[in-house]
């Protein structure tokens, strides 16, 4: 944040960090409540039930691609069970913001179906074909390059693992700040299981989710079918110039799909899985709320970077209108998005004399189109003969294939290893129209009927063909009792081939210099090394040095000049030092996991416009703390805290942080990187009280908070980009019958109806000044039955 006290705040950062870490332990601060489960069954997180005296559940994770206890893995990792996701009313990955330390997933400012991910103060705000995220997403062990396929509807996941920090060794490119793993629950080989859950709530929310798992051959073959339908009218209102409501479902969402999974274990040590899923997403638009400074006619206030300008919603929070150009429509006649796709995963594993050999084959495909207006006002801005509209229309055809071979094993229980080969390819075709380029109208060959001026838009027809090859190795070697050397390495080769055509408004006349066919190869060696000391049976200390790598992308997304359409950016790299302490206390009733890290990024790509990107180097230090406490069986308390100190260390001379505002002020290297709040936290509790033979009643409460930050596609540190600090409270009450057959929950999110915003669009004209606010107070009721 840019203000006179910024340097003072940085000086006091270590003091604040120490005080916050010490204080959080005493906050009535859900993640891991011990679950009563039938003998031989898991409770939804790959965990075992605890004794009646209370305790923290034992979570099994696969962060190192082998099954290990969470507390024995020398990685900063958060694991969320199915029960946690339900208690938090997590409907999609975007609801996980703040639930994990230093993790944010705000809604995409363009399309609902493409979440944004920021972890440890780094990530990427858009989902363009030429921009890959720094947070790698895996579903059922398959990497998803396009986050348009990463809007994960919560059907029946066994757990979600969030690996913080570079994961370049085991998870490859595009995991420079971490990886998210969604692990679906597998079929049960021993007994029939079924569940059906329905929910209703504010904004006409309606959810139906269920599954049935059936063993076809006892202990050998089982199948499982999941299905879901989730929809709501959203909380955005469409208004006209007089602020009259025209529609209250402009931001509607409707998602439905199904997943078939199978598990076959013909003999001991041999296993096969075949999983197929399909989905459809029909959404409205994430229309931004237009904002104006105190003096709407002042460009000085609009472009201020000194922290002196205040902004207000033009029509009110979560209210916006369509400009005339949006209504034209190209692929769709109404702003919104539609995606449909499917995926196939085949896994096989066999125990050998060398270890367990595993093959993972995955294929995913989707088609999608959307029309969106980036601002939320009903008039166009035309300046100096340039039409600055704000419509983007896109059609995408995407498919990917991956193949991975793994070998995991151990030698005399002293040397544990994972080795593998990996291949990935994807083809991404996109036809896109954008009116945000600002093309001089006299250059536009056509004019829309009924309009007196020409529109400065352009079409881009692009085809991306990328391939990636890798070989990796990761190991843990016990040098002496309880002291292990850990490390590994990965060698990656990437090939990218692109055909790029850019046309005028008529979609026929080419811009000069097009088409172009840029191609480039990349390669990178990413090592990891560290020490792991099991000081006591309940205390683990570790320290690591890790490198991460993200392949270079093409600079221009909607370029009208062959320069950005042919220029590949240099690869983004990161070097991270990390130290952690994982500990359990008082008979495993208290768990504390503390991590400190320092990361140096090189060639981080900051988006300036659809055809302009500036590179920068950044240094991000941080602390992460997770606390789980179960003083008695009936009470579970939790808290997490993330602290960040992020700064630029170098930037291209053309980077907007060096551009002065109307007052002559430029933040320069003192600017604050995007989505890097000084702090974020989450705290809460669950208290469960038995009700005789009827069952039990439980009360949950939580508070999630994020500190002041800059957030939006802009990286100029404009006053309009400042997100004030906010904290949101949520609560719910749940009744469960004996054996948890029937569950009834009533919940309230944003209890105090806090008005806050999380991201937006910003630029040099009022057309671009817009914010995306969060939902206000909202309620839900959920009824579930299982057997």
Automatic annotation (TrEMBL):
It is found in: Cell outer membrane. Pfam families: Plug, TonB_dep_Rec_b-barrel. It is a multi-pass membrane protein. Residues 295-751 form the TonB-dependent receptor-like beta-barrel domain. Its main location: membrane. Keywords: Cell outer membrane, Ion transport, Iron, Iron transport, Membrane, Signal, TonB box, Transmembrane, Transmembrane beta strand, Transport. Residues 70-178 form the TonB-dependent receptor plug domain. PROSITE patterns: TONB_DEPENDENT_REC_3. One of its GO terms (cellular component) is cell outer membrane. CDD domains: ligand_gated_channel (cd01347). InterPro entries: Beta-barrel_TonB, Beta-barrel_TonB_sf, Plug_dom, Plug_dom_sf, TonB-dep_rcpt-like. Residues 1-34 form the signal peptide. Belongs to the TonB-dependent receptor family. PANTHER family: FERRICHROME IRON RECEPTOR-RELATED (PTHR32552), TONB-DEPENDENT OUTER MEMBRANE RECEPTOR (PTHR32552:SF81). This is Ligand-gated channel. It comes from Novosphingobium sediminis.
């Amino acid at each position: 944040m840019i203000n006179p006290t910024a340097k003072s705040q940085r000086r006091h950062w270590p003091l604040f960090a120490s005080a916050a870490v010490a204080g959080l332990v005493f906050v009535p601060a859900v993640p891991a409540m011990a679950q009563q489960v039938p003998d031989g069954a898991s409770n939804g997180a790959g965990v075992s039930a605890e004794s009646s005296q209370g305790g923290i559940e034992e979570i099994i994770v696969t962060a190192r691609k082998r099954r290990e206890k969470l507390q024995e893995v020398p990685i900063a990792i958060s694991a969320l069970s199915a029960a946690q996701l339900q208690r938090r009313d997590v409907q999609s990955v975007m609801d996980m913001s703040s639930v994990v330390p230093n993790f944010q997933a705000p809604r995409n400012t363009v399309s609902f179906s493409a979440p944004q991910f920021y972890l440890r103060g780094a990530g990427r705000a858009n989902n363009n074909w030429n921009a890959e995220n720094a947070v790698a997403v895996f579903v059922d062990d398959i990497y998803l390059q396009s986050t348009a396929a990463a809007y994960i509807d919560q059907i029946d996941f066994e757990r979600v693992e969030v690996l913080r920090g570079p994961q370049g060794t085991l998870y490859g490119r595009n995991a420079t700040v971490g990886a998210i793993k969604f692990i679906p629950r597998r079929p049960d080989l021993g007994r029939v299981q079924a569940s059906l859950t329905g929910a209703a709530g504010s904004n006409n929310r309606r959810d139906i989710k269920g599954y049935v798992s059936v063993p076809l051959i006892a202990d050998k073959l089982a199948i499982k079918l999941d299905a879901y339908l989730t929809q709501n009218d959203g909380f955005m209102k469409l208004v006209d110039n007089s602020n009259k409501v025209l529609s209250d479902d402009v931001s509607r969402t409707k998602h439905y799909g199904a997943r078939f999974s199978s598990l076959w274990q013909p003999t001991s040590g041999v296993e096969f899985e075949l999983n197929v899923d399909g989905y459809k997403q029909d959404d409205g638009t994430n229309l931004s709320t237009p904002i104006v400074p105190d003096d709407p006619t002042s460009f000085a206030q609009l472009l201020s970077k000194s922290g002196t300008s205040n902004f207000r919603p033009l029509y009110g929070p979560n209210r916006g209108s369509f400009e005339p150009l949006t209504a034209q429509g190209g692929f769709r006649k109404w702003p919104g998005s539609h995606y449909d796709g499917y995926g196939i995963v085949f896994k096989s594993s066999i125990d050998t004399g060398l270890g367990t050999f595993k093959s993972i084959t995955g294929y995913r495909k989707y088609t999608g189109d959307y029309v969106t207006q980036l601002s939320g006002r009903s008039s166009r801005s035309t300046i100096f003969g340039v039409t600055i509209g704000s419509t983007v229309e896109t059609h995408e055809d995407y498919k990917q294939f991956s193949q991975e071979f793994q070998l995991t094993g151990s030698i005399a229980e002293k040397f544990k290893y994972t080795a593998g080969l990996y291949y990935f390819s994807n083809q991404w075709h996109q036809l896109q129209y954008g009116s945000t380029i600002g093309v001089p109208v006299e250059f536009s060959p056509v004019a829309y009927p009924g309009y007196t001026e020409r529109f400065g838009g352009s079409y881009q027809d692009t085809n991306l063909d990328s391939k990636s090859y890798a070989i990796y190795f990761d190991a843990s070697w016990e040098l002496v009792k309880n002291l292990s050397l850990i490390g590994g390495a990965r060698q990656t080769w990437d090939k990218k081939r692109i055909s790029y055509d850019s046309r005028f408004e008529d979609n026929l006349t080419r811009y000069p210099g097009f088409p172009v066919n840029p191609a480039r190869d990349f390669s990178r060696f990413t090592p990891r090394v560290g020490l792991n000391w099991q000081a006591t049976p309940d205390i683990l200390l570790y320290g690591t040095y890790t490198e991460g790598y993200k392949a270079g992308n093409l600079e221009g997304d909607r370029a009208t000049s062959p320069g950005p359409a042919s220029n590949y950016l240099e690869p983004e790299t990161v070097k991270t030092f990390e130290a952690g302490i994982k500990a359990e206390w008082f008979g495993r009733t208290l768990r504390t996991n503390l991590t400190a890290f320092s990361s140096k990024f090189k060639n981080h790509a900051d988006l300036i416009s659809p055809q302009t990107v500036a590179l920068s180097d950044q240094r991000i230090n941080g602390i992460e703390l997770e606390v789980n406490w179960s003083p008695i069986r009936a009470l579970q308390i939790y808290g997490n805290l993330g602290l960040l100190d992020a700064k630029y260390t170098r930037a291209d001379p053309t980077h907007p942080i060096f551009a002065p505002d109307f007052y002559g002020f430029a933040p320069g290297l003192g600017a604050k990187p995007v989505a890097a709040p000084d702090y974020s936290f989450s705290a809460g509790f669950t208290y469960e009280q038995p009700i005789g033979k009827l069952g039990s009643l439980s009360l949950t409460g939580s508070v999630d908070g994020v500190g002041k930050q800059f957030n939006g596609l802009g990286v100029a540190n404009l006053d309009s980009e400042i997100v004030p600090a906010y904290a949101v409270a949520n609560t719910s009450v749940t009744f469960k019958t004996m054996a948890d057959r029937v569950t009834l929950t009533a919940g309230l999110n944003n209890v105090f109806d806090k008005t806050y915003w999380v991201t937006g669009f910003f630029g040099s004209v009022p057309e671009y000044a817009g914010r995306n606010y969060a939902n206000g107070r909202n309620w839900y009721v959920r009824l579930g039955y299982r057997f």
